[in-house]
Amino acid sequence: MDKNQIREVIARRVALELKDGDVVNLGIGLPTLIPNFLPEGVDVVLHSENGMIGIGPTPEAGKEDPYFINAGGGAILPAKGAATFDSATSFAIIRGGHVDISILGALQVDEKGNLANWNIPGKMVPGMGGAMDLLTGTRKVILAMEHTAKGKAKIMKECTLPLTAAGQVDMIVTEMCVINITSEGLVVTEIHPEFTKEDVINATEATLIFSPDLKPMLS
């Protein structure tokens, strides 16, 4: 798979987790592709931490509106009934428990559901943004992430980067597989047909448990 195919596989699979009525926050990067792959007939409310609820699909080139951007500065368009507001109100929505699902990227995640997604070694970063609030203020956290970074494992036995939050991740979706984080450990429930168990194991530092009901990855 090339980079675009990888990102599409992940976004399509994560979109299948969303159900009618869900209020969903999309983190910067790959998660912002998810509105383009929502199943037909599924009606969700998409929230952006910079102050918008009711995000529609990514606009076509040339049809961007400079007044509407997501938390990463990417172009978005409002869905019917959308509302905009200040950052304080946006975080009150998150901290008040009104967001059902957060979909975030990751630099590292480990066997305990710990997430590191803000501090890139050797680079200046302004801080962790809203990720800490999203991890602790929503009912379910899904990571939409590439399985490795330049061949190095991102799913670890223990994160080596500073944590954004501890024990908050529920599910990991990569181009290779779907993993549920349980009290027993990391349970692989689906594998993409292009990969084998051995491929997944070799690309992962953490110990994996393969579900007895292992299925091909949905798309």
From TrEMBL:
Q: What is this protein called?
A: Acetate CoA-transferase
Indicate the family of this protein. Belongs to the 3-oxoacid CoA-transferase subunit B family.
What InterPro entries does the record tag this protein with?
A: 3-oxoacid_CoA-transf_B, CoA_trans_fam_I, NagB/RpiA_transferase-like
- What residue intervals traverse the membrane? none
Q: Name the domain of life.
A: Bacteria
Name of one Pfam family that matches = CoA_trans
Mind listing the UniProt keywords for this protein, alphabetically?
Transferase
Q: Name one GO molecular function term.
A: CoA-transferase activity
